[in-house]
Amino acid sequence: MSTPSPTLAGRLRALREQGVRSHLDARRNRLLTGGLGPGPAIVVLMLIWAIFQILDPSFLSPRNLSNLSVDVVGTGLIAAGLVFVLLIGEIDLSVGALSGFTAVLFAVLNVHHDMPEEPAALLAVAAGCGAGALNGIIFARLGVASFAVTLATGLGWSGMLAIVLGGSGTVVFDDEGFVATLTRHHFGHPAAAYGLAALVTGLHFFAAHQRSRYHRASGAAFSSTGKIMARTAALGLIAFAGAAVLNQHRGLPLALLIFLLVVAGLDYGLRRTTYGRTVYAQGSSVEAARRAGLHVVAVQISVFMVSGTMAALGGLFLASRTSTVGAGSPTLVLLVNSVAAAVIGGTSLFGGRGRTWSALLGILIIQSVASGMALLGLRGAVQITVTAAILLIAVITDSLSRRPHLALRTDARA
User: Fold this and answer.
1) Residues 311, 99 contacting (CB under 8 angstroms)
2) Separation CA 342–CA 311 (nearest Å)
3) Alpha-helical segments (H) within 143-271
4) Which has the closest alpha carbon to 303: 34, 72, 80?
5) Domains, the chain, ranges and CATH?
6) Which residues on neighbouring strands pair with residue 171, listed in sequence order?
7) Can you say whether the dihedral through the CA atoms of 243, 248, 253, 256 is positive or negative?
8) Is 355 in contact with 366 (CB distance < 8 Å)?
9) Contact call for residues 321 and 183 (beta carbons, < 8 A)
10) In tens digits, what is the pLDDT along the chain, a chain of 414 residues?
11) String of b and e for 111-142 (b: at least 16 CB within 10 Å)?
């Protein structure tokens, strides 16, 4: 058998090297344009859990993890709404004050005006939606910067909170009523938690398989069946392990179930509908979206409406934990935690990148820090400092990962 000539051998070697370089360049481009994804946040979460478990063996106990799964819901819902605003490259600084105001509005309507809890809660959520629409109209129609608009309206909702409360500093509502039940009810039968785990795993496999078939039919890159099976197995392991832990305490919390359903619905709207694609398009380039004939103003108003609605919903869940609302609610800390949850979970402050599941991952990190420090008897100021440090690292990472991405886009235009 004849051996290739030196020239032919050199060409073959050059082709192989070029293939390796092309593969590495493609991987690098995907990383830069798609961000780091949830990977770093997952690593941070595992480290936090490992550290606190070493310091206090009760941290990963079924009781503490069950409480943690409920504690994340209120702020997590607010963060999920903020993801929509962040995706278009804007910010909503009013969500902390708005969540407090809508919770107070619900309690005052229910306790002082004898309105049943269900319609009072619906009116509170509607008020949040209307407040978000106000932010969106001023931003989109009048061209006022989003941080200025929402900072002003946030101060306004703080004042309205005090006005609605009147002379009473706090309002206590029924601790066995509809709103209180949202965070206190658990599905005690083991089938509930295991059924949810099976449903999540099955839906993930079905969605991934359908997406792979569509990409294959259209000639785009697609995931192999083996990769889909591996990811589904990993998700199933986490889901069933979580279900087993919850069943060791009180079962599946109603609050967690609602949170997962809401986040999944919002994620579907963002990733599987024309509206969601328009939101992402605006985050990449507002001008390009406008030239493409997309409804830029309507989408801008709508994302603030989503943010306001989720702020009101999150405020009800936060009030549900204590069945009490008052003027002393830490709205600034709530705002910081909500923004931090979205950004730490992987949503970019520059727009165009992120998912609603970012809120779940980010708030898990923040609330895990709070839970661990409470077990260790550390002050709340330490928790705020640690959360601020994690947020700063996430913001710096987001900014650094964005720079080469912008350079790539500039080179492509050239």
Assistant:
1) yes
2) 13
3) 146-165, 178-184, 190-217, 225-247, 254-271
4) 80
5) 58-188+250-413 (1.10.3470)
6) 325
7) negative
8) no
9) yes
10) 445 445 555 544 544 444 444 434 444 444 444 455 677 788 888 999 999 999 999 999 999 999 999 999 999 999 999 999 999 999 999 999 999 999 999 999 999 999 999 999 999 999 999 999 999 999 999 999 999 999 999 999 999 998 888 767 789 999 899 999 999 999 999 999 999 999 999 998 988 888 888 878 877 777 788 888 998 999 999 999 999 999 999 999 999 999 999 999 999 999 889 899 899 988 888 888 888 888 889 999 999 999 999 999 999 999 999 999 987 767 888 898 999 899 888 888 888 888 898 889 999 999 999 899 988 888 777 877 887 888 888 788 777 766 654 444 444 444
11) beeeeebeebbebbbebbbebbbbbbbbbbee
For the record, the structure tokens of 154 come out as 């946030």
Tokens of 269: 């709207």
Q: In 73-124, which ranges are E strands? A: none
The 10 Å Cβ neighbour count of residue 188 is: 12
Nearest to 311 by CA among 82, 62, 24: 82
Nearest to 335 by CA among 146, 129, 79: 79
Look up residue 177 and give its DSSP letter.
Answer: S
Query: Do 86 and 349 form a contact (C-beta atoms < 8 A)?
Result: yes
CA dist list (Å): 383 to 346, 359, 389: 21, 19, 10
CA-based nearest residue to 256, from 75, 70, 51: 70
CB distance 361 to 38 below 8 Å: yes
Give CA angle at 323 (160, 376), nearest 5°: 105
Q: What residues have CB less than 8 Å from 369, skipping those under 6 apart?
A: 48, 383, 386, 387, 390
In angstroms, the CA 246 to CA 238 distance is 12
The rounded distance, in Å, linking the Cα atoms of 411 and 408 is 5
In the block, which residue shows the tokens 């935690």?
337
Are 289 and 300 within 8 A, CB to CB? no
Which pTM does this prediction carry?
0.87
Q: What is the DSSP letter of 252?
A: E
Residues 259 and 254: their CA atoms lie apart, in Å, by 9
> How far apart are alpha carbons 313 and 336 in whole angstroms?
18
Query: What is the Cα gyration radius of the chain?
Result: 24
Chain length of the chain: 414
